[in-house]
Amino acid sequence: MRDLRVGHRLSPPAKLRLWLRIVRWYLVVRVRTGREPLPKLAARIGDVGLARGDRLPPRQLAWAVDRTLHIGRLRPRCIFNALVLYRLLREQGDAAELVIGLPKNPADKAAHAWVELDGVDVGPPPGRNGHEQMARFA
Fold first, then answer.
1. pLDDT at 5
2. Of the N and C termini of the chain, which has fewer Cβ atoms inside 10 Å?
3. CA angle 27, 79, 132 (to 5 degrees)
4. Backbone angles phi, psi at 18, to 5 degrees
């Protein structure tokens, strides 16, 4: 299994490039979620060519997505964060899967989204957080 830990230090220019990629994909995801059904959007977002750029450990990438998109008290819904992380992992060649789930004893229709690699939750925080899988997109 690949190393899922955080550990690579990025140079300031690399941090800026990563920040720009995260913000770009967040904006794409925000616009497209209102226009496309989730299965179609996940397929489109996950369809990438050959791996490119620097490879980061998945948990470090999840942390970067969470930190970039969490501004003050504002935090995007989990589906946006998960779709951005899913895209960035796919770009670097990881076989990421977007997972949608419900709590074990759902009291309402509030679903939750996270990303897995080889069946392991990699985030974004809080990750699976006790939810049971309903749908999986690869």
1. 47
2. N
3. 170
4. -65, -45
Show the tokens assigned to 123: 């985030």
Taking only the tens place, the pLDDT of each residue in 16-70 is 999 999 999 999 999 999 899 999 999 999 998 766 667 899 999 999 999 999 9
End-to-end CA distance of the chain: 18
- Secondary structure in 3-state letters for 43-103: HHHHCCCCCCCCCCCHHHHHHHHHHHHCECCECCCHHHHHHHHHHHHHHCCCCCEEEEEEE
CA distance 124 to 86: 9
137: pLDDT strictly greater than 60:
yes
Q: pLDDT value at position 7? A: 61
pLDDT tens string 71-91: 888 888 899 999 999 999 999
**Using CA atoms, how far apart are residues 106 and 76, in angstroms rounded to an integer?**
22
Are 6 and 59 in contact by the 8 Å Cβ rule? The answer is yes
| Cα→Cα distances 43→46, 76, 115, 137, Å | 5, 21, 14, 7
Torsion angle of alpha carbons 49, 120, 56, 22, nearest 10°? 70
